[in-house]
Design goal:
Radius of gyration: 22 Å
CATH architecture: Orthogonal Bundle
Mean pLDDT: 82
Number of helices: 11
Order of helices and strands: HHHHHHHHHHH
Structural class: mainly alpha
Distance between the termini: 39 Å
CATH topology: MetI-like fold
Low-confidence stretches: none
């Protein structure tokens, strides 16, 4: 018992260190976003919100924020639809080449982003589609669809395999069964997928930087502000982006974990 208790304390301490390592830079950015000094140094200057005022009074930032919102929303819907289709195909059907199908479906997140970005730029240029907002949506959909598939497939694995045959035996068509059984069962994971893919798309930089052209998203604008200059308004913009992203991720996590702890009664 003492060994188990010691192990729990060690694991808790290790987890705390990991969280500290991950979130310390974000916390520092938050603190310096309210610091009156231009340079991030200690001791801090006085409390100010001037950097937020400067950042959010910049029309280019608002234009990029609106574009990021549109891109992330559309990407989330398309990626979730593709992810649902791929997850249901994996769940319901056995076919030749299924392993290859799964490998290819989950491949994009494993490719280095710079390689994926260059590949997307070259492919889109063939159709004279690079530098458009739709280009960012296409590229982000390729990147985000595997995340949607993984989240929805996890939920489908918890569904009783007899539910659909039972509905069919009662006279429901495949489409009615999909609408009345499968989609309601997977709805929490669908919402979680929407939130997660929107978060991934909203703060993704490398792919957007290559394919966006003049249609900049927020991360691309942040890089331009930082180029050859130290500007504390980046801390303000970064804090806002982090709050949006972490909110979406937390919602997704709550939905996935909450439903996993409450199996459906049949």
């Amino acid at each position: 018992m003492k060994d188990d208790k010691l192990l729990r304390w060690v694991l808790a301490f290790y987890t705390a260190l990991v969280f500290l390592f991950v979130f310390a830079p974000i916390a520092a950015s938050l603190v310096f976003s309210f610091n009156s000094d231009r340079f991030p140094t200690i001791p801090l200057g006085t409390f100010t919100t001037d950097w937020y005022v400067k950042a959010f009074s910049n029309p280019e930032v608002w234009d990029a924020a609106l574009r990021s919102l549109i891109v992330s929303s559309v990407t989330a819907v398309i990626a979730t639809a593709i992810g649902f289709s791929a997850a249901y195909t994996d769940y319901r059907y056995d076919f030749r080449g299924k392993k290859a199908f799964l490998v290819l479906s989950l491949l994009p997140p494993t490719i280095p982003l710079i390689i994926l970005a260059l590949a997307m730029l070259g492919w889109l240029s063939m159709f004279h589609a690079s530098g458009l907002t739709i280009s960012i949506i296409i590229a982000h959909t390729v990147l985000c669809a595997p995340f949607a598939m993984a989240v929805i497939r996890l939920r489908l694995s918890q569904m009783d395999p007899n539910l659909e045959p039972a509905a069919w035996n009662l006279g429901a068509s495949e489409w009615v069964t999909m609408k009345s059984v499968v989609i309601p069962f997977t709805l929490p994971s669908i919402i979680a997928s929407l939130c997660l893919t929107a978060a991934v798309s909203f703060d993704e930089f490398a792919v957007a930087w290559f394919v966006s052209g003049l249609n900049k998203t927020v991360p691309v604008v942040i890089l331009e502000i930082l180029t050859g200059n130290i500007d504390p308004q980046v801390n303000a913009i970064g804090t806002a982006v982090f709050l949006v992203s972490i909110t979406l991720v937390v919602i997704a996590q709550v939905l996935v974990m909450g439903r996993a702890k409450k199996p459906e009664a049949v």
